């Protein structure tokens, strides 16, 4: 059985009464479900995770299989409120497309932007996907007035 680089311990968030946490009130059940998903990551998600992990994009920290309310985002960056979802064949059905539309609507209520890519796009056009993600990250930083930082969160005066 191959090693899973996303395997980790279940850590419940410390909820803050003065503001909503980055988990938006997710229940322990949603955290447990996210743990299961992290331990069964798809090849496509693993490919994208290699690009998003370890603050490789402008020092931004993405989390894999991140609970947000009653949903689980494939990848989430809280500082710029950006979800990146990878959609497989399951998302081709009308019912799942309707679910995705409703989920997007609910997440947008929190000010979260969702971008979606199909599995085929990740495998066949990954260089353009990476450029597109960087573009969205820059756009969200400007929209939310997030300071630009270099690798690992250090300030970068060149930006």
Give the N-terminus to C-terminus distance in angstroms: 43 Å
In what range is the share of β-strand residues?
A: 15-25%
Shape: globular
Q: Which strand order do you get reading across the main beta sheet?
A: 1-2-3-4
Describe the model:
The protein has helices at 28-38, 43-52, 94-108, 119-124, 126-144; strands spanning 63-68, 71-77, 82-87, 113-118. It has 159 residues and is an alpha+beta fold. It has one domain (29-147): Endonuclease, Chain A. It has a four-stranded mixed sheet with strand order 1-2-3-4, with helices on both faces. The termini are far apart. Residues 1-5, 7-19 and 151-159 have low confidence and may be disordered.
List keywords for this structure.
disordered N terminus, alpha+beta, Endonuclease, Chain A, 159 residues, globular, 16% strand, 4-stranded mixed sheet, single chain, disordered C terminus
